[in-house]
Design a protein that fits this description.
This protein is of the alpha/beta class and 437 residues long. The protein is built from 13 helices and 16 strands. A six-stranded mixed beta sheet has the order 3-2-1-4-10-9. Strands 13-14-12-11-15-16 form a six-stranded mixed beta sheet, sandwiched between helices. Helix 8 crosses helix 13. The longest helix has 25 residues. It is globular. About 4% of the residues have low confidence.
């Protein structure tokens, strides 16, 4: 039996899922990051989630794909060793170089955000920090497995400025960052493209077969989208993890930096895939549809700042989801949001806080639901295909009270797909990569 392994790197930890050729899950492993420097913590988590997969499964893994958080980036030397601490997806320190970025990028471009990959690269260059390679989190983790440094996918590379229409880096980008200290940008391939066999040292350590292939990855929210089984334009996936991310399958591409909206190229990849994961998606011209969406810093991290998981479960059951909360929050842990308000200086709004914890949680959940609804409303106002159904992925998918609340705002069916884990979507990507679609 052949197995396909997906490994998801989120905000707090790594997760792996192994599926067979029919899409049945045979192993699910989760590992929390260690405290300390980011890159060593990611590497240790990668080895830990692989090591805990049953050896009998590892011996029959035919392909592996990884996903990482979008716009989490790093600089490496020519051996792939990080040269400084990576910058996380939601870090807005590059607000300091936004004027330089606006001078380089076209008006209203996706990269015009303080949290974009390109903004972070400019921040490093502005501070005199160079390197041999500029990589995304998923790029570097894939390198640890296949040993080929400097390979990315066009989902991760979107916020670096890679042009997904022409599938190349545009001249304005290459000219705008040219300089002696500028690191090499990654070679970009389609998500799921076989990159190379597992390195011999990795195969020997974990018992992977010699022909086990590592495929190009994707971002965590797109991996969750792949796992959902969405198959029609107008259907969408909201990922409710530490942050809130929305993705709407659309015939029309929409990009608007004013609101942090961007579109990922989404080819018709899934012919022959297991039907419970994703039936054939028929694209438009050239077989291509678009995943239109954005990501907010509001989400589960804010909830966990105030409540334990047990409290969230118990208190939610005491909320009437059909009654609107009059508390009007913008739940952020720190200043700045990316979507549907793209403002690195946006202040959190968490007052007034009622004495009743149930009322406070109600206000937080409802406020995040409003942000989600406003996001989908914006996508449609700007030309995306009309919303018909929303599937929910991530930890928030388990909260049925919250789902009912969100349905009241979205005014379309809100469902939980059979598979919600991003690692499952990455496993599907690995399977498609070596089976040729």
């Amino acid at each position: 039996m052949n197995f396909y392994l997906g490994i998801d790197f989120g905000t707090t930890g790594a997760r792996s899922t192994a599926i067979d050729s029919e899409g049945k899950i045979h192993s699910e492993i989760e590992c929390t990051y260690e405290s300390g420097d980011l890159a060593p913590a990611w590497q240790n988590a990668l080895w830990a989630v692989i090591d805990r997969i049953p050896a009998a499964i590892r011996r029959q893994v035919r392909a592996i794909a990884l996903d990482g958080t979008s716009s989490t980036v790093m600089l490496c030397d020519s051996d792939g060793i990080p040269m400084c601490e990576p910058i996380l997806y939601n870090d807005a320190r590059a607000a300091a170089v936004m004027e330089k970025l606006r001078a380089i990028a076209p008006a209203n471009h996706t990269v015009l955000s303080a949290t974009s990959s390109l903004a972070k690269l400019l921040w490093w260059l502005d501070g005199g920090q160079g390197g041999a390679f500029f990589l995304h989190q998923a790029d570097w983790l894939g390198f640890l497995l296949h040993g080929k440094l400097g390979i990315s996918d066009y989902h991760n590379a979107l916020k670096l400025g890679f042009e997904v229409d022409t599938l190349c880096y545009p001249p304005w980008l290459l000219e705008g960052i040219a300089g002696a200290a500028t690191p090499r940008l990654p070679e970009v391939v389609a998500p799921g493209t076989p990159v190379g066999k597992v390195r011999e040292v990795v195969g020997d350590r974990f018992g992977f077969p010699p022909d086990c292939m590592v495929c190009a990855g994707t971002t965590d929210s797109i991996a969750a989208f792949l796992a959902s089984g969405v198959n029609s334009p107008g259907e969408a996936v909201t990922s409710l993890g530490s942050t809130l991310a929305v993705k709407l399958l659309s015939h029309t591409r929409v990009d608007d930096a004013r609101y942090g909206i961007y579109s990922h190229r989404f080819p018709a990849l899934f012919e022959g895939a297991a039907p419970q994961f994703s039936p054939l998606i028929k694209g438009g011209a050239g077989g291509c549809l678009w995943l239109v969406g954005g990501a907010s810093n509001a989400g589960g991290a804010v909830l966990r700042h105030f409540f334990t998981d047990r409290e969230l479960e118990d208190l939610s059951q005491q909320i009437d989801p059909n009654r609107e909360s009059l508390l009007d929050y913008y739940p952020l842990l720190n200043k700045g949001d990316r979507f549907p308000i793209n403002d690195p200086n946006l202040q959190p709004k968490l007052e007034p806080r009622p004495a009743d914890s149930v009322e406070f949680l109600h206000g937080l959940l409802e406020s995040i639901a409003r942000i989600e609804a406003r996001g989908y409303q914006l996508l449609q106002e700007l030309g995306a295909t009309g919303l018909t159904k929303v599937y929910t992925a991530g930890g928030g998918a388990k909260n049925q009270v919250w789902s009912a609340m969100r349905k009241r705002y979205l005014k379309v069916p809100v469902e939980t797909p059979i598979h919600t884990a991003a690692a499952c979507g990455a496993a599907l990507l690995a399977m498609r990569g070596v089976r040729g679609g």
